[in-house]
Amino acid sequence: MKKIMKRPLNSLGGKSQLQSACQVQVNMPKGGHANPLRILEPNRKRLTSLKAERVFRVSEENIKNVQIVLILPEVIDSLERLNIAFGQELYAMLKEHDILRQKYDNNVYLLQEGKRLEKEYNEWLEMKERQGDLFSESSSESRSESGQQEEEFVIQVKGQNMTTLHQNVAMTADELSYSVKNILRKFRSDPTATKAVLELAKDLSGMKRNFVKGLQDLQSIVREKLLTTPVELEERKYYIGKVVQRENKILKIKEKLQIDYDQQIKIKKEEEEKQSAVINKLKETLQSLNEASSKECSKILNDASQRIKADVKNSDAKQKVFAQQFIETKKTSGDQLKQNYEEEREKRKRKFKLSTEVFNWIQKYDADMGMRQVSLVNENLVWPVRQGS
């Protein structure tokens, strides 16, 4: 199997291009900073112009006013606890503002109810018109009369029509706006109360906190704009332009490297797909070989088991035959042994008889020979005597 070779992504060329792009020298203006990011900071740290100081103070005052307005609901809920810090006049103004807020909420609720009823009434009219399209033309007069009655219908909530409800909401909104302005003026003239409220405003959370943070960020931007001189602005534009050029060049090189990288990844994926196809083919071949070998093994095992069964069957039959033959042979050998014992006994008897007869013959022979020897001796003794006479 071929190995998947990792080809370098033009590492030397891409690296050199990237280094050359990063080493672009930015021609700094006179009085260049040691830290390149210092060019984005103004040289002045304090506002010298009265107009700039006034603009910054206005933005700072606006942030305080926004914090006070956002924390007003919590201040009104804790009004009894903050009564000493606020004083009687501010306390009365906040109480009146709370009443106006409740009145405004009530008017808004009534207006929403009126809009809901108006929406339901319009939906009812549309449904009735759709149902009226199914009637015959003979009922057109009755529909026209009902239409005149419907046109005379006016939506009212607690005896007030929609126009009055809109006017009430607008009027209470103006009153609330006027009340907020008066409260802010009062806070502006009372530093102690302002400090207490701003301490509470530090605990703002969620959207209110994000809104205040956005205003503070905007104030920082305004302050930076006020501290920046026209010469510094030109230097910043020049420096940022050079940085943008360098970034554009780096982006082009990055895009080129990305294209080369994508091509190499594509080639690698194609090679991997080819290798995967070869591997899958080999897996299929191996699987087919395994299946064939398993079938062959099962066939061999079946044949072997059948042969073993046949051999066992034959061996059992032969064992039975051999056992029968053994029994018969044992019986025959027993009979033969018994017969041999009988024959041996007879032969022993005959042998003993013959031995006895031979012994008797020998004794008889010895006796005869002894007698003849004696007679012969006697004759030998007698013969000389006879010869002499």
Automatic annotation (TrEMBL):
It is found in: Cytoplasm, Cytoskeleton, Flagellum axoneme. The keyword Cytoplasm applies. Its main location: cytoplasm. InterPro entries: DRC10. Keywords: Cell projection, Cilium, Cytoplasm, Cytoskeleton, Flagellum. Component of the nexin-dynein regulatory complex (N-DRC), a key regulator of ciliary/flagellar motility which maintains the alignment and integrity of the distal axoneme and regulates microtubule sliding in motile axonemes. PANTHER family: DYNEIN REGULATORY COMPLEX PROTEIN 10, IQ DOMAIN-CONTAINING PROTEIN D. Belongs to the DRC10 family. This is Dynein regulatory complex protein 10.
